[in-house]
Amino acid sequence: MEAEAAKFIGAGLACFALIGAGIGIGNIFGNYLSGALRNPSAAPGQFTNLLIGFALAEATGLFGLLIALMILFG
Amino acid sequence: MIEAGYGRERPELTGLANVGGADVGPEGATGALGPMEQFEINRYLKLDLFGLDASFTNSALFMVIAVAVIIGFLHYAMGGRSMVPTRTQSVAELAYEFIANMVYDNTGKDGMKYFPFVFTIFVFVLVLNMLGMIPYSFTVTSHIVVTFALAALVFIVVTAIGFARHGVGFLKLFKPDGLPLPLVPIIVPIEIISFLIRPISLSVRLFANMMAGHTLLKVFAGFIVSLGVFGVVPLVATVAFTGLEFLVAFLQAMIFSVLTCIYLNDAINMHDHH
Question: Is the ipTM of this complex over 0.95?
């Protein structure tokens, strides 16, 4: 296999990390919504926690994206 | 060494640079730029400081603009200092209260003296992100050098505050109370690693979000031309993504400052929640 081809395949594989980020973000927002519908008065107080969870879940996926970009352009 | 960072030729970029238009030459000579070229750094004023490249670049220019915008706006908005705020004054007060509440909720009363620090970081990142949304401008926060410098500043400040307040006792942060002895060799290294990885995750989150978002916008904008009549579909998508990018620009500035508050809370109140 050519080195160039392997590079692109590797970059594509690194993007698989975003699957986990997608699942994580969906989980967080889905659970927040179901919790907020059960008890709407408590929802605004948990908004910051929601965003922190979102940020933490997203960061793991972005690490993978970063690896992909490093393979492509590094 | 530093020369290799920006000025160099990157022929491998042209492959992606042509994603949008087929008629674009290998150097993007027709004026249509590739999605990665918006992140190029240009030197406006060459400056060599003891072998270090301290040139005034477009990145530096936009940081200066951001600081000027922040100082100018806050000075103008709070110039009246009326009891019943005018519209611009309410915006400034809104920003103040937003961060003041965030700092108080996360760090308690002791943390309020670090409010100026968090407020500065929030407004600086927010304005840099928002300036980047102006077409043909430059997004400073899409470079990991800048975001890592900010994150490293937060990390150093937090560590310094922790040691200043608790002395060597700050190291107890790595060993939570009531931790069973057999678990110590497992938990303590994990806690240390998670503490040391903070500047990396903080900077990569901001940088990757801004860079990925702006690249996505440019890639979709390229499809509009190359698809002809069907270019309406990516046009609508681009408009929607632009709206989303404004949300991300605000959200990332907010998350950066919320996490700064949480790290400050660790340093001020250790593990217990005020």
Answer: no
